[in-house]
């Protein structure tokens, strides 16, 4: 059934508006009310249909002339083509090409070839520190948008109505499963680009998120940890075992080591992403003071204290 509103009123232009003004006004309003921009908004969808119908007539000199003569009165639509504006017109306007192409141009959508410009997609992945250190292959399910098979991305049917399959969006949501390889040494916030794996041939960017580790702290390509030692080990020196991401290693603790002192284990940190070796592991020493001493232990420590009279606080100044 044809619309009752005056087409000039629908577009908001005067009756003596030229083709450029009509086109400019329509483009502005089409951007605002297109179903792609207003998913699920029935009022916007209806407004868009009104605009499209008005534009079909007023952008065509012959149809505009006939409309100016008889408007909505009588058998105008029957003369233009049986079934009303959607059926009577071929969705085209002189100089502008297919109307769907104009909609696509307004929204930066696909061109007449039927392909949209590829879109890039960012996908976050949660990894453990061990996975980041050794690398892995994982299957992921990526939500992607594909061109609607029914309307081929245009968002409209041949009658200018919103496509029922995609609701006028021109796309359908799908899940894409991929086997992706995460190289060793990735860091939180780094990007792994998979060319052509995004929506419509765009790129997929994997964004790793590395979970905190219970023992190691990461600083770039280096790792930091803290190892407890006894007073005797620190004073006399000892060979101690230190955990690394590839198992325990034996480390020589120098005699006279102080609490808080750090030992550097070269090449025992995280792999560098550019395959140029590994970072370092810094081992902080924490001297554990024994509690609940036996009488014999107390006696021995008192004797040791009596043998060394110097005070570690002798040089302190306020």
Topology:
Elements: H1 7-11, H2 19-33, H3 42-58, H4 61-70, H5 76-80, H6 85-88, E1 92-93, E2 97-98, H7 99-107, E3 121-127, H8 129-134, E4 136-147, E5 171-182, E6 192-194, E7 204-210, E8 217-219, E9 222-230, H9 231-236, E10 238-244, E11 247-253, E12 262-265, E13 281-288, H10 295-307
Helix pairs in contact: 2-3
Structure notes:
The chain has 318 residues and is α+β, with helices and mostly antiparallel strands. It has 10 helices and 13 strands. The strands form 5 sheets. Strands 8-9-13-12 form a 4-stranded mixed sheet. A 3-stranded mixed sheet has the order 3-7-6. It has a two-stranded antiparallel sheet with strand order 1-2. The radius of gyration is 37 Å and the shape is rod-shaped.
Q: Which structural traits does this protein have?
A:
alpha+beta; 3 domains; Helix Hairpins; 318 residues; HSP40/DNAj peptide-binding domain; 28% helix; 26% strand; rod-shaped; 13 strands; 10 helices
Produce a short descriptive summary.
The protein has 318 residues and is an alpha+beta fold.
């Amino acid at each position: 059934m044809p619309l009752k509103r005056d087409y000039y009123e629908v577009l908001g232009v005067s009756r003596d508006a030229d083709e450029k003004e009509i086109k400019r006004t329509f483009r502005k309003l089409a951007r605002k009310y297109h179903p792609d921009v207003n998913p699920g908004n029935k009022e916007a969808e209806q407004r868009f249909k009104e605009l499209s119908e008005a534009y079909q007539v007023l952008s065509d000199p012959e149809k505009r002339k006939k409309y100016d003569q008889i408007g909505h009165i009588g058998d105008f639509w029957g003369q233009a083509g049986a079934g009303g504006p959607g059926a009577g017109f071929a969705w085209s306007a002189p100089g502008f090409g297919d109307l769907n192409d104009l909609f696509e141009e307004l929204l930066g959508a696909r061109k007449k070839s039927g392909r949209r410009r590829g879109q890039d997609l960012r996908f976050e992945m949660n990894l453990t520190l061990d996975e980041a250190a050794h690398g892995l292959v994982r299957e992921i399910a990526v939500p992607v948008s594909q061109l609607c098979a029914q309307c081929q991305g245009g968002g409209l049917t041949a009658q200018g109505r919103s496509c029922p399959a995609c609701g006028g969006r021109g796309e359908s949501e799908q899940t894409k499963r991929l086997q992706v390889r995460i190289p060793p040494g990735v860091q939180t916030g780094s990007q792994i680009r998979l060319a052509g794996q995004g929506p419509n041939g765009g790129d997929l960017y994997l964004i790793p998120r590395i979970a905190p580790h219970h023992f190691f702290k990461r600083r770039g390509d280096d790792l930091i940890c803290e190892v407890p030692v006894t007073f005797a080990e620190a004073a006399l020196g000892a060979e101690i075992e230190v955990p690394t991401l590839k198992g325990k290693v034996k480390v020589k603790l120098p005699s006279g080591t102080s609490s808080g002192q750090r030992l550097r284990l070269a090449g025992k940190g995280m792999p560098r992403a550019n395959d140029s070796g590994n970072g370092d592991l810094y081992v902080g020493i924490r001297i554990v003071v024994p509690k609940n001493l036996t009488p014999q232990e107390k006696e021995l420590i008192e004797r040791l204290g009596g043998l060394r009279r110097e005070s570690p606080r002798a040089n302190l100044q306020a």
